[in-house]
Write a structure and sequence with these properties.
The longest helix has 18 residues. The two termini are 25 Å apart. By secondary structure, the chain is mainly alpha-helical.
Amino acid sequence: MGCKAPQNYGWTERLLDRGYQILFLDQRGTGMSSTVTARSLSPFTPEEQADYLRHFRADSIVEDCEAIRKVLTADYPDEKKQWSILGQSFGGFCCISYLSAHPEGLKEVKVAERNRSYYAKYPEDVQRVKNIVHHLHTEHVDLPSGGTLSVARFRQLGINFGFHGAIDAVHDLILRMASDLDYFAYFTQPTLAEYESLQSFDSVPLYALIHELIYLQG
């Protein structure tokens, strides 16, 4: 997923005030960096698509970053050629990959931890989430567009923590789901539709194809 304008991130001003210069990178296949879409992939066979998408993995993104760093710091003294990187979700995975591949290029690495931030802001959601998970363990819940809302699928809401303002959006949904259980003992269709709106890959197929797969086992 591509970067939004710098002013849309709450930490931009804080970093600038601390003397940092910031580079927002639209990593391969996202934003203004040759976005991958269903239409752009459609001329290829499945085998050709898989071969093409190999070039959009974290290792290639890291090599892009390292090449950019070398260009931007070409005229810097050696002691100032390293830079700091920050990442969350797939960006955090890329940071770890960067540490493995090119530690010599890094001054510091910041990886955001959002679960703790979420429950610090909304501590009452701890019990609400437990109640929702219990319901999903004991009841079969069909989603409006098809498929089942399982516990594992519900936990994917955490994906949204990587977006500016999404912690509040997730809380709004948790509050709505908990309210449905209190009043009806089931999730209403509008609430399930709202859940699906936070889980759509329609405009970002690369995320579903490659990015989220980093968390699979085996």
